[in-house]
Amino acid sequence: MNKIMKYLLVVAVVLAGCMIVFSSTCLIIDSFQTDDCKIALTAPDLFQPGQLIELDASASMATELAWGILPATANFKVIDDGKRAIFTGTGDQKVYTIIITGWRNGKLVQIFHVLTLGYDSKIAVTDLQKKIISWLPVDRTHDDVIKLAQAFNSIARIIENGTLTDPANIVEATAWSTSDALGKNAEQWEPFLKKLQEYLVNSPPTNHAATWREIARALEASDGAA
Question: How far, in Å, CA of 167 to CA of 159, rounded?
Answer without folding.
Answer: 10
